[in-house]
């Protein structure tokens, strides 16, 4: 029997469509590895059949429809994408991260209980950011006040967006991931496909 964590239950009872819940519980959570938080490999055909059920109109016919639901699951923190993956392309055969299935995540349970709009004084939860960064494969886990400021300014302009502290920090981690992969991120050193800041070298004498 599947044992859901409190963090998962909190996210699943948020404003999600039932199709998202079915996809998560029966399509992604089933068979997931709680030690690595990895899902089973994505099988579009299986997931499409699961979502369509006995609906003769088969509303789900394409992988990109699955990706659209996964985006919603990502928004509430149930899914995280490895750094090399994006939902604009097929993810058939690939695995996702399900960050809330791991019990050590209970350290952050309280971050799921308070929901709020963005505030000018917001800061990411450092411990959670570092854990999310590791899950997402972010090499350079540093960030500065300007990066926080840009993120805060963007969301202050969207006062109807209300999320938990966990979700805000996860969104910030995803934002940092996109910046690390963006062209023009400098000063940098390329590590794999990511660009990371280069620490200034101290010269002697």
What's the short version?
The protein has 205 residues and is mainly alpha-helical. 40% of the residues lie in helices and 5% in strands.
Explain the overall architecture.
The chain has 2 domains: 6-99; 114-196, Helicase, Ruva Protein, domain 3. It is 40% helix and 5% strand. The chain has helices at 6-12, 18-29, 44-52, 63-75, 126-136, 145-156, 165-181, and strands at 115-116, 163-164, 189-191, 194-196. Helix 5 (126-136) crosses helix 7 (165-181). Residues 199-205 have low confidence and may be disordered.
Give the SSE order as H and E letters: HHHHEHHEHEE
Q: What characteristic shape results from the CA principal axes?
A: globular
Count of helical regions = 7
Strand order of the largest sheet: 1-2
Terminal CA distance: 66 Å
Query: Oligomerization state of this entry?
Result: single chain
Specify the biggest β-sheet.
2 strands, antiparallel
Number of strands: 4
**Which structural class do the helices and strands define?**
mainly alpha
Rounded to the nearest angstrom, the radius of gyration is: 18 Å
Overall pLDDT score? 82
Beta content: under 5%
Number of domains: 2
Provide the fold topology.
Layout: H1 6-12, H2 18-29, H3 44-52, H4 63-75, E1 115-116, H5 126-136, H6 145-156, E2 163-164, H7 165-181, E3 189-191, E4 194-196
Antiparallel strand pairs: 1-2, 3-4
Helix pairs in contact: 2-3, 2-4, 5-7
């Amino acid at each position: 029997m599947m044992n859901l964590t409190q963090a998962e239950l909190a996210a699943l009872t948020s404003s999600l469509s039932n199709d998202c819940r079915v996809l998560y519980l029966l399509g992604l959570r089933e068979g997931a590895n709680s030690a690595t938080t990895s899902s089973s490999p994505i099988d579009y055909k299986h997931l499409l059949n699961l979502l369509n059920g006995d609906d003769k109109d088969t509303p789900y016919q394409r992988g990109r429809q699955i990706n659209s639901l996964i985006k919603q699951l990502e928004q509430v923190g149930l899914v995280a994408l490895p750094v090399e993956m994006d939902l604009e392309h097929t993810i058939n055969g690939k695995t996702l991260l399900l960050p809330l299935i791991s019990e050590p995540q209970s350290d952050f349970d309280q971050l799921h209980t308070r929901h709020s709009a963005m505030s000018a004084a917001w800061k990411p939860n450092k411990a959670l950011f570092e854990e999310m960064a590791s899950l997402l494969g972010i090499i350079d886990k540093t960030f500065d006040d300007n990066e926080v400021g840009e993120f805060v300014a963007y969301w202050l302009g969207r006062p109807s967006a209300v999320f938990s502290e966990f979700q805000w920090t996860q969104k910030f981690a995803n934002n940092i991931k996109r910046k690390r992969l963006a062209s023009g991120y400098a000063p940098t050193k390329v590590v794999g496909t990511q660009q990371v800041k280069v620490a200034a070298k101290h010269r002697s004498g």
